[in-house]
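Please decode residue identities from the backbone states below.
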């Protein structure tokens, strides 16, 4: 964590937590499924709440982590249409032309997809 002076035990604990979380998906982002690098483009996200319980921590790429920020999974899901992330600017443009978003849109994240295919 930037700006914190961690002692060796805290650094070791943080490293273990990061390793456990990364191994939940073998380094794939919990949301988009891209392969992350544990030393470069990898973040730890709170999947359902701000709880730091290990069961609530999931691997996340920097892009998804930046977009999701403090949203719940369901709030985050509403930002996608046909698998594409919709920005506020996109929404304004669609509204300008009278185009509404589908109400039956249900975006599946990587961790929800059938991985057997």
């Amino acid at each position: 964590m930037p700006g914190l002076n961690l002692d060796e035990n805290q650094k070791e604990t943080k490293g273990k937590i990061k390793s456990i979380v990364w191994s939940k998906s073998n380094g794939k982002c919990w949301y988009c499924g891209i392969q992350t690098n544990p030393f470069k483009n990898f973040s730890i996200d709170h999947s359902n709440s701000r709880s730091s319980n290990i069961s609530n921590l999931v691997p996340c790429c920097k892009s998804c982590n930046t977009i999701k920020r403090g949203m719940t999974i369901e709030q985050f899901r509403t930002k996608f249409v046909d698998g594409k992330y919709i920005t506020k600017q996109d929404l304004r443009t669609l509204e300008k032309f009278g185009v509404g978003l589908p109400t039956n849109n249900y975006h599946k994240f990587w961790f929800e997809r059938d991985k057997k295919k």
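Observation: The chain has a mean pLDDT of 79.
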